[in-house]
User: Fold this.
Amino acid sequence: MTLDRRQILALAALAGGAGAFETASAEAHDAQGRMPPLPEDAPKIAMLVHPRMIALDLINPMTVFNILRSNIMLVGKTMEPAATDVRIPIGATHTFDQVPREVDVLFVPGGIMGTIAAMDDPETLTFLSDCGRRAKWVTSVCTGSLLLGAAGLLQGYRAASHWTVSDLLPKLGATKVDERVVIDRNRMTGGGATAGLDFGLTLAAKLVDEEAARRIQLILEYAPEPPFANGTPAQAGPERVATMRAGRPWMDAQALKAVEAAAERLGLPA
Amino acid sequence: MTLDRRQILALAALAGGAGAFETASAEAHDAQGRMPPLPEDAPKIAMLVHPRMIALDLINPMTVFNILRSNIMLVGKTMEPAATDVRIPIGATHTFDQVPREVDVLFVPGGIMGTIAAMDDPETLTFLSDCGRRAKWVTSVCTGSLLLGAAGLLQGYRAASHWTVSDLLPKLGATKVDERVVIDRNRMTGGGATAGLDFGLTLAAKLVDEEAARRIQLILEYAPEPPFANGTPAQAGPERVATMRAGRPWMDAQALKAVEAAAERLGLPA
Assistant:
């Protein structure tokens, strides 16, 4: 039954969405612009969807993996579509028990209130811990690394997170690194939100090769020109950072509480 | 009845999604991290959703506008969720006749096969032409500018598009400009796909002020570090560009045909 359902989904995807990004892997198109079925050895990528996630954290790397022609699984605790910051619900294609035993990539997007809730959910933590133990790459963007850490997957690893919460990483046994994309053995974590593009392309180069990643960068015309130099706390300056911090004491307290509870469960020193 | 439906949607949005991006407009949060209702004068932004669109083209600017606390309307020909490149269907919140007479922003995302289909759809063209005539800003990302052009909204304007199709802009009466974000009077068009972040922040600064846009840039940690210098045809070099072009003769022919048909309808010289 599970197999039937997946086959139906796969067929629906091919009929409906595939090829919508015209320039995707251009050389793979047939004369009518259709994409052939995914190859058997397409990278298997399990991307967590959880309630109150940040849609952009998922969509940017997912677009990269899609153009790379990966076997993308959106994995949820249930098939119930997950609410997102932009109020576009995102449905899972697989529940936890439907994910293959071995995947190439486990990916966790951010979304602070959603991350906090998931950090306290035994089923989610068990899935991540189990899947992450066997995955070739264990990855995240934005606050997703807190959830990886809560699942015990970042102990002894260098990792990035959103600047507002990255100070909490050491409580989960990780070394906080203020870089856009941090690779430590088979862990790859991205900084806040938009780091998902840099992360996705970096991972694409590892999964296939640099040339594939370069082509995707050209397809997505990723030659960014931010209108201001204001994307990091250092660029923004102490006044703006202080203003933002002042607006989120409740949120910060929730994050700290969730991290401390996770650290205790993992038997880490306070 | 229309009003009731909108009220229900607005209430659902407030209960479910708002505040998921914790750092959104931090100073507006209350002590429990909840966002207050949108102010009466929140920018009204009509974002087209059309079948086979590129999800990323929509989500990146939408995230910016959401943090800016805008009144975002996802506008479709029908309420039927639109298929996207990543196979995440995106539903409309408003049909064409439910959009207020005057909006601050009309936005069109890209998605070449979807764009081509929409360029031949009288209802979509009529909506865009009508809404765009009264909108304060007429905008697009990626191939969306071809659709604006087909609706007669770019005649005599400078505009950007995805590099694979930007040569077609002059056939629609526009001047092609190879820049990341092009502003000409009240038209603001972005380049390919990922230009949506630069575009969104640039427009946020116009809609509110530079300080608001800077804060959003910090929230989204938009300090990009592309892993390669490969985001433009010039960076990628002639060989990669030729490979990509060679893979899409059918697609290019379709785009040309749609543009020529639109140009004829607009009475433009061939």
Remarks:
- Strands of chain B lie at 44-48, 71-76, 94-95, 105-108, 137-140, 158-159, 175-176, 181-184, 187-190.
- Chain B has one domain: 44-221+231-265.
- The domain at 44-221+231-265 of chain B is CATH 3.40.50.880 (Rossmann fold).
